[in-house]
Recover the amino acids of this structure.
C-alpha cells in the first residue's frame, strides 16, 4: 500500500499497532508490546500506561494525546487523524493504551478509522485492568462458590439518565461479579442503583487504585459503606470497582498475597 505525502516520491504507508500496555507494571506488558515500543518510530499515548512504562520510552518518540497542559482532552478526531497522518508519512506507529486496547479504550473506533483510510493496523492485546486490577487485590473475577458470570461496565454514565446504556437492574439480577471501570466519580450513583435493584447492602465491594503501579492502593467495604471508604481514603482514578461475593475473597487470601503492594481494608464494621 502506498500513500503520497505530497513530497517527491510516494512512500509506503506505515503500520499502526494498537497496543495494550497492561495495567502498569512493565513486567506485565507482552514481549511483543515491548519489542514494538523499542522498534517503532512514534508512540501515541495518554497517561494510563503508567509512569514506569512511559518513562521507558525515549522522549523523542512520544506524543501525548491524553490530557493537554491546559487540561483539555485531545479530541478523538485529532488522535484518529494523527494516526493516519503519521502512517501516510511511512512511519511505524504504536498507539499505546492502558490495559487492553479494545476494553473501554476506544481502540475499536481507531481500528475503524484506520481501515476506512486504508491504513494497515495490528491489534496487540494487553492484560486488562478489569481482570488484573481485581486479581492483584486477591479478588478472582470468577469463583465457583460465588459466581459464574462477570460483567465489565463503564461507570462514566449517570445511572439515572433515561437513555443510560448500562442496565444496572439487569446487572444486579445476574448476581455475578461486576467490575466497573471509570467508576470512581459515579460510585454513589451506581451503588445506589444496584441496591435499589435488589442487591444486598452488605455485598462486598473493593476499589483498586493504580493497580500494579508502584503506589497501588486497595480499599474495601460493602455497597452500603464503600462511598464513605472512598471519601475517607481519597481514592482517585484510575481505579476499578469490583462488586460481588468474589470481593470478599480478598480477606481470606490477603495475608498470603505476595504481590500486594499496599492497601486499606475498612474497619470490620465497614463490611
Ligand atoms: N483499556 C483499559 C481501560 C480504559 S478505561 C483496560 O483494559 O484496562 C480507563 C479505566 O480503566 C480507568 O478509569 C480505570 O477504571 C481502569 N484502569 C486502567 N488502568 C488501571 C489501573 N492500573 N488500576 C486501576 N484501574 C485502572
Amino acid at each position: 500500500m502506498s500513500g503520497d505525502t505530497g513530497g517527491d516520491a510516494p512512500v509506503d504507508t506505515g503500520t499502526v499497532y494498537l497496543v495494550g500496555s497492561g495495567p502498569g507494571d512493565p513486567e506485565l506488558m507482552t514481549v511483543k508490546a515491548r519489542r514494538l515500543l523499542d522498534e517503532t518510530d512514534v508512540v501515541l499515548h495518554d497517561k494510563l500506561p503508567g509512569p514506569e512504562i512511559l518513562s521507558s520510552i525515549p522522549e523523542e518518540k512520544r506524543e501525548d494525546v491524553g490530557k493537554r497542559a491546559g487540561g483539555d482532552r485531545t479530541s478523538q478526531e485529532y488522535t484518529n487523524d494523527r494516526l493516519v497522518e503519521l502512517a501516510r508519512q511511512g512511519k511505524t506507529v504504536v498507539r499505546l493504551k492502558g490495559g487492553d486496547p479494545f476494553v473501554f479504550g476506544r481502540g475499536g473506533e481507531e481500528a475503524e478509522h484506520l481501515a476506512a483510510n486504508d491504513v494497515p493496523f495490528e491489534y496487540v492485546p494487553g492484560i486488562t485492568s478489569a481482570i488484573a486490577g481485581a486479581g492483584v487485590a486477591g479478588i478472582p473475577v470468577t469463583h465457583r462458590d460465588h459466581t459464574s458470570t462477570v460483567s465489565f461496565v463503564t461507570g462514566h454514565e449517570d445511572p439515572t439518565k433515561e437513555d443510560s446504556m448500562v442496565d444496572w437492574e439487569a446487572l444486579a439480577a445476574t448476581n455475578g461479579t461486576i467490575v466497573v471501570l471509570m467508576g470512581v466519580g459515579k460510585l454513589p450513583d451506581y451503588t445506589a442503583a444496584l441496591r435499589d435493584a435488589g442487591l444486598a447492602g452488605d455485598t462486598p465491594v473493593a476499589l483498586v487504585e493504580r493497580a500494579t503501579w508502584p503506589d497501588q492502593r486497595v480499599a474495601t467495604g460493602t455497597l452500603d459503606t464503600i462511598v464513605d471508604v472512598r471519601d475517607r481514603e481519597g481514592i482517585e482514578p484510575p481505579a476499578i470497582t469490583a462488586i460481588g461475593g468474589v470481593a470478599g475473597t480478598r480477606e481470606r487470601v490477603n495475608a498470603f498475597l505476595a504481590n500486594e503492594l499496599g492497601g486499606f481494608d475498612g474497619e470490620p464494621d465497614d463490611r
User: Anything to note?
Assistant: The pocket of S-adenosyl-L-homocysteine is lined by residues 23-24, 48, 97-100, 103-105, 128-130, 133, 181-182, 208, 210-213, 237-240 (CB under 6 Å).
